[in-house]
Amino acid sequence: MEADRIILRPWRDSDAETLYKWASDPDVGPRAGWPPHKSVEESLKIIRTVFKDATNTWAIELKENGEAIGAMGYGPSCECNLPAREGEPLIGYWVAKPYWNQGICTEALQLMLDHIRQTTDIKSLISGHFVDNPASGRVMEKCGFVPTGETCIDEKQYQGKNRPIRVLRLELNK
């Protein structure tokens, strides 16, 4: 999938060093609910397990340099506490800190939503963001997600204890 500045593509083993460079930043993972990566080997393991097992998870590749700078994906609602409807997929994403506030996540999310509309019969999507990460919520809202008015706590998420998650949903019009 391709947009103006980015390509959504499968993760490759060769992305491990770049993934580690970005995912080891202590400001990145905790905002999304996962711990910073501790080694290139850990990043490679994530590529080979988490990203490979999630068939609808892609690297966000910056066209200008061919580097993976984040991830975008959707899939079955995980073991989190979001109030998903039966069969309603959960979306998630992150981007490396040097690329924050440049509209890249919005571009990537819109690209993925276009793909979902064109290739699936999914009726709605759910997502959420820690309330202390409002930028993530702005990305969702720019792409049509609407706050449900619900919040939840998910202690299974990294640093999730006492961090409310604001829930948003997108109704997909076919």
Strand content: 25-35%
* Multimeric status of the protein: single chain
SSE series: EHHHEEEHEHEE
Q: Mean of residue pLDDT? A: 92
Could you say which overall geometry the principal axes of the C-alpha atoms support?
Answer: globular
Instruction: Report helical residue fraction.
Output: 25-40%
Low-confidence stretches: none
* Distance linking N and C termini: 20 Å
The number of helical elements comes to: 5
How many strands, what sense, and barrel or not for the largest sheet?
4 strands, antiparallel
| Computed structural class | alpha+beta
Neighbour order of strands in the largest sheet? 1-2-3-4
Q: Radius of gyration, rounded?
A: 15 Å
Question: Could you explain the architecture of this structure?
Answer:
- The protein is of the alpha+beta class.
- The chain has five helices and seven strands.
- Helices cover 29% and strands 26% of the residues.
- It has a four-stranded antiparallel sheet, with helices on both faces. A three-stranded antiparallel sheet has the order 5-7-6, covered by helices on one side.
- α1 crosses α3.
